[in-house]
Amino acid sequence: MAWWSDLVDEEPDFAERVRARFAVRKHGTMATLRRDGSPRISGTEFQFEDGDLRVGSMPGALKALDLRRDPRLALHCPTEDTPEDDPGSWDGDAKIAGIAHELPPPEDGSHRFRVELTEVVLTRVGEPADHLVIESWHPGRGLHRRIRR
Protein backbone atom coordinates (compact mmCIF):
# COMPACT_ATOMS: atom_id res chain seq x y z
CA MET A 1 0.00 0.00 0.00
CA ALA A 2 1.15 3.53 -0.74
CA TRP A 3 -0.24 6.65 0.88
CA TRP A 4 0.35 10.33 0.20
CA SER A 5 3.04 10.38 2.91
CA ASP A 6 4.93 7.64 1.02
CA LEU A 7 5.01 9.76 -2.13
CA VAL A 8 6.15 12.81 -0.12
CA ASP A 9 8.96 10.75 1.45
CA GLU A 10 10.08 9.24 -1.86
CA GLU A 11 9.61 12.21 -4.24
CA PRO A 12 9.04 15.40 -2.21
CA ASP A 13 9.46 17.86 -5.12
CA PHE A 14 7.08 15.92 -7.36
CA ALA A 15 4.54 15.55 -4.53
CA GLU A 16 4.64 19.30 -3.86
CA ARG A 17 4.08 20.13 -7.54
CA VAL A 18 1.12 17.72 -7.69
CA ARG A 19 -0.36 19.12 -4.49
CA ALA A 20 0.02 22.65 -5.84
CA ARG A 21 -2.12 21.71 -8.88
CA PHE A 22 -4.86 20.40 -6.58
CA ALA A 23 -4.69 23.62 -4.53
CA VAL A 24 -5.47 26.06 -7.37
CA ARG A 25 -9.19 25.90 -6.56
CA LYS A 26 -11.37 24.28 -3.94
CA HIS A 27 -13.18 21.75 -6.15
CA GLY A 28 -11.84 19.16 -8.55
CA THR A 29 -13.28 16.10 -10.23
CA MET A 30 -13.59 12.50 -9.07
CA ALA A 31 -14.47 9.48 -11.19
CA THR A 32 -16.11 6.47 -9.56
CA LEU A 33 -17.79 3.37 -10.98
CA ARG A 34 -21.56 2.94 -10.99
CA ARG A 35 -23.22 -0.36 -10.19
CA ASP A 36 -23.32 -1.23 -13.92
CA GLY A 37 -19.59 -0.42 -14.31
CA SER A 38 -20.07 2.83 -16.19
CA PRO A 39 -18.17 5.90 -14.95
CA ARG A 40 -19.64 8.61 -12.76
CA ILE A 41 -17.95 12.04 -12.68
CA SER A 42 -18.55 14.18 -9.59
CA GLY A 43 -17.20 17.41 -8.22
CA THR A 44 -15.35 16.94 -4.97
CA GLU A 45 -13.03 18.60 -2.49
CA PHE A 46 -9.61 17.18 -1.63
CA GLN A 47 -7.84 17.34 1.71
CA PHE A 48 -4.13 16.72 2.17
CA GLU A 49 -3.75 16.29 5.92
CA ASP A 50 -1.68 14.23 8.35
CA GLY A 51 0.20 12.55 5.48
CA ASP A 52 -3.03 11.44 3.80
CA LEU A 53 -5.05 12.40 0.77
CA ARG A 54 -8.74 12.35 1.69
CA VAL A 55 -12.03 12.93 -0.10
CA GLY A 56 -15.50 13.23 1.34
CA SER A 57 -19.14 13.68 0.50
CA MET A 58 -22.51 14.47 1.97
CA PRO A 59 -24.46 11.65 3.64
CA GLY A 60 -25.87 9.19 1.12
CA ALA A 61 -24.15 10.75 -1.93
CA LEU A 62 -24.03 8.43 -4.93
CA LYS A 63 -20.27 8.85 -5.31
CA ALA A 64 -19.81 7.59 -1.73
CA LEU A 65 -22.10 4.63 -2.36
CA ASP A 66 -20.07 3.90 -5.52
CA LEU A 67 -16.86 3.85 -3.47
CA ARG A 68 -18.37 1.55 -0.85
CA ARG A 69 -19.26 -0.93 -3.62
CA ASP A 70 -16.07 -0.53 -5.70
CA PRO A 71 -13.34 1.56 -4.08
CA ARG A 72 -11.42 2.40 -7.27
CA LEU A 73 -11.34 6.10 -8.11
CA ALA A 74 -9.59 8.71 -10.20
CA LEU A 75 -9.08 12.32 -9.18
CA HIS A 76 -8.37 15.27 -11.45
CA CYS A 77 -7.13 18.61 -10.18
CA PRO A 78 -9.06 21.81 -10.78
CA THR A 79 -8.19 23.20 -14.19
CA GLU A 80 -6.90 26.57 -15.28
CA ASP A 81 -7.15 28.08 -18.73
CA THR A 82 -3.94 28.53 -20.68
CA PRO A 83 -3.40 31.99 -22.10
CA GLU A 84 -3.53 31.73 -25.89
CA ASP A 85 -0.62 34.13 -26.24
CA ASP A 86 1.57 32.20 -23.77
CA PRO A 87 0.91 28.42 -23.80
CA GLY A 88 4.18 27.82 -21.96
CA SER A 89 2.79 29.53 -18.87
CA TRP A 90 0.39 26.65 -18.19
CA ASP A 91 1.41 25.02 -14.92
CA GLY A 92 -0.08 21.70 -15.99
CA ASP A 93 -2.57 19.33 -14.50
CA ALA A 94 -2.44 16.44 -12.08
CA LYS A 95 -4.29 13.15 -11.84
CA ILE A 96 -4.35 10.57 -9.08
CA ALA A 97 -5.71 7.05 -9.29
CA GLY A 98 -6.26 4.99 -6.21
CA ILE A 99 -8.33 2.93 -3.84
CA ALA A 100 -10.71 4.57 -1.34
CA HIS A 101 -10.66 3.34 2.26
CA GLU A 102 -13.66 4.53 4.25
CA LEU A 103 -12.97 6.27 7.54
CA PRO A 104 -15.39 6.45 10.49
CA PRO A 105 -18.12 9.01 9.76
CA PRO A 106 -18.14 12.31 11.61
CA GLU A 107 -21.18 13.27 13.67
CA ASP A 108 -22.94 14.81 10.66
CA GLY A 109 -23.04 11.40 8.92
CA SER A 110 -20.98 12.49 5.94
CA HIS A 111 -18.61 10.10 4.21
CA ARG A 112 -14.82 10.35 4.38
CA PHE A 113 -12.28 8.25 2.53
CA ARG A 114 -8.51 7.92 2.74
CA VAL A 115 -6.97 7.40 -0.71
CA GLU A 116 -4.39 4.68 -1.28
CA LEU A 117 -2.28 5.73 -4.28
CA THR A 118 -1.91 3.51 -7.34
CA GLU A 119 -0.78 6.20 -9.81
CA VAL A 120 0.06 9.92 -9.72
CA VAL A 121 0.57 11.86 -12.98
CA LEU A 122 1.64 15.44 -13.63
CA THR A 123 1.47 16.81 -17.19
CA ARG A 124 2.90 20.20 -18.15
CA VAL A 125 4.29 22.15 -21.09
CA GLY A 126 8.07 21.80 -21.45
CA GLU A 127 10.75 24.38 -22.23
CA PRO A 128 10.63 25.45 -25.00
CA ALA A 129 6.83 25.22 -25.28
CA ASP A 130 6.86 22.71 -28.14
CA HIS A 131 6.26 19.52 -26.15
CA LEU A 132 4.57 18.04 -23.10
CA VAL A 133 6.40 16.62 -20.10
CA ILE A 134 4.54 13.75 -18.47
CA GLU A 135 5.77 12.58 -15.08
CA SER A 136 4.19 9.53 -13.48
CA TRP A 137 4.77 7.80 -10.17
CA HIS A 138 3.66 4.29 -9.26
CA PRO A 139 4.26 2.49 -5.95
CA GLY A 140 7.23 0.18 -6.26
CA ARG A 141 8.26 1.61 -9.66
CA GLY A 142 9.06 5.19 -8.73
CA LEU A 143 9.00 8.33 -10.84
CA HIS A 144 9.25 8.23 -14.64
CA ARG A 145 9.41 11.14 -17.09
CA ARG A 146 8.29 11.09 -20.73
CA ILE A 147 8.32 13.71 -23.46
CA ARG A 148 5.48 13.96 -26.00
CA ARG A 149 5.92 16.10 -29.11
Compact overview of the structure:
The chain is of the alpha+beta class. Helices cover 17% and strands 46% of the residues. It contains three helices and eight strands.
Describe this structure in words.
This protein has one domain (4-122): Pnp Oxidase, Chain A. It is 17% helix and 46% strand. It contains three helices and eight strands. A six-stranded antiparallel beta barrel has the order 1-2-3-6-5-4. A hairpin with a 3-residue loop joins strand 7 (132-138) and strand 8 (142-148). The chain starts with a helix and ends with a strand.
Q: Care to count the β-strands? A: 8
- CATH architecture identity: Roll
CATH topology: Pnp Oxidase, Chain A
H/E series: HHEEEHEEEEE
- CATH homologous superfamily heading: Electron Transport, Fmn-binding Protein, Chain A
Strand content: over 45%
The Cα radius of gyration reads 16 Å
Shape: globular
Q: Given this structure, which CATH class is correct?
A: Mainly Beta
Low-pLDDT regions: none
- Counting H and I runs of at least 4 residues, what is the number of helices? 3
Q: Give the distance, in angstroms, between the N- and C-terminal Cα atoms.
A: 34 Å
Strand sequence of the main sheet, in spatial order?
1-2-3-6-5-4
Structural class: alpha+beta
The residue fraction in helices comes out at: 10-25%
What summary fits the major beta sheet? 6 strands, antiparallel, barrel
Whole-number average pLDDT?
A: 94
| Tally of individual domains | 1
Region (Disordered): 75-94
InterPro entries: F420H2_bilvrd_red/Heme_oxyg (IPR052019), Split_barrel_FMN-bd (IPR012349)
Protein name: Pyridoxamine 5'-phosphate oxidase
Organism: Micromonospora sagamiensis
